[in-house]
Amino acid sequence: MTLYVILEAVISLLLIGGATFAFIGSMGMASMQDFFMRLHGPTKATTTGIGCILIGSMIYFGVLDRKPVVQELLITLFLFISAPVSAHLLGKAALHLKLERAEKTQGSPAEIDDDANSIKPEPYPEHGRTLVLTRKELEEKQRQ
Amino acid sequence: MNRLSRWFPTPLLSLVLLIVWLLLVNGLSVGQLLLGTFLAISIPLFTYRFWDTQPRIQRPWLLIRFIVIVLLDIVTSSIQVAWLIINPKRRMRPVFVEYPLTLKEPFTITLLANTISLTPGTVTTNVRLDKSSLLIHALDAGTPEEVIEQIRERYEMPLKEIYEC
């Protein structure tokens, strides 16, 4: 009987912890200063939050049905595949739109700061995509 | 060997597909096993032309260690990021870092970029297509050099050992 009490406590902790993480991740999205910082909340805190809830669900249904439940691993797998890819695509779109960033941000990537007129997207022969050149690369290319 | 690699161009992908199929139908019967095997063989055969060539895994055990490290890092990084969000006093120091790559293969670069996006306060925002550098946005870091050093030691070197030696 005590085993069930302990398991119940563990499951509740996982659920509450997961919900808290997911909430904080969403809160970060609302409170951060610029787009690039906002990108961090949902990709990480939320991933862990969902992970905690899924582990809780696995234990709960595993105990209830008396057999191991592994389907939740699938959700985790898909989440781990999709979260970084979507974050990357959002970041890339933001770079192309040259969105403003917080003033204290260090570093100046060529994608945002170079004069748009001096950069011509180059077709990338191997993949048929376009390639944004940095100013240094452009100068080298013109020299050739 | 030649015939085997013609039927299984990507053995690891086939295995993952079979396992995912069995998990999706949530049951282990002979019929599903056969159907899963069929899918695991046919899907890579139809799609492998779109894939970048996958380098051979040189040291599988290191790969497992790498996955465990990354999972632990995801947990600690979420706690860090969550703490950064709820602590109003802490000032964040966002940085754009240009990370010079030493990896060569597109597949391993993709793996590294994904790992960076999943772990401590960093998101890969651009992969320069000349394969020379990544553009990373870090949420809270002292200097770009710190970020570069951390990523190089924790993720790039293990990946290099696993795939490229």
Reading the helices and strands of chain B in chain order gives HHHHEHEEH
Q: Describe the main β-sheet of chain B briefly.
A: 3 strands, antiparallel
The total domain count of chain B is 2
Q: How much helix is in the residues of chain A?
A: 55-70%
Strand content range of chain A: under 5%
Briefly, what is this?
The complex is a heterodimer of chains A (144) and B (165). Chain A has 6 helices and 2 strands, in the order αααααββα. With 144 residues, chain A is mostly helical.
Can you offer a commentary on this structure?
The complex is a heterodimer of chains A (144) and B (165). In chain A, 69% of the residues lie in helices and 4% in strands. Chain A has a two-stranded antiparallel sheet with strand order 1-2. The longest helix of chain A is centred in the first third of the chain and has 30 residues. Chain B has a 3-stranded antiparallel β-sheet with strand order 1-3-2, covered by helices on one side. By secondary structure, chain B is mostly helical. The model of chain B has no long low-confidence stretch (mean pLDDT 78). Classes of the chains: A mainly alpha (144), B mainly alpha (165). The interface between A and B is large, with 50 and 41 residues.
